[in-house]
Amino acid sequence: MIISALAAIGYKEIQMIFIVLGLLLGIIGIFISLITDIWGLIPSKGGVGLFLGTFNPVHKSHITILKQFINERQLDKVYIHPTVIPKMHQYLLDKGMIEIVKEEAGKRYYEKSASADPLVNFFPTGKVFYEAENRVYMLKTAIEEAGLAKKVKTPNWKLICWVLFLTICGILVENMMDFHHTIKIGQTRHRHC
Hints:
single chain, 3-stranded antiparallel β-sheet, 6 helices, 6 strands, disordered C terminus
């Protein structure tokens, strides 16, 4: 900061130092950037992998990708997890653009709502969606049939339920505290009026 201030005042020697330092730092930045780009091209080996998706339903391509993932990265273990409700479905449900019209035999059936854009395809992979626990069961079966059960772990539903329960409790407590705070502020303002 001092160097830039002195350079701005007009000291020629400081201006030269400022330019040289700028060029030098720029070259170092480019060099570091190139090293990290090259490093990123080299896949890491070993450790733990995550494979996330909807798996609606799991199919041979998922298992092929999983095997390739394990072999190429030499992974010790892979945790695989289907999304409970895909983010896009949840967003569209919240916005009222799609709705669940039926839940039957472990599946959810979606349709566009009346307020949805008729020109948009909200269901490129289909309107039927298996419930998460059914997708986990299908995943476990496919993983066992592929001989990957020792390396691949599926979700522990008891743990997931506890995490969801605690998350919901936290949200409820937070909302109650906000509501209580709002009422207190409202009462305080009302008393002063």
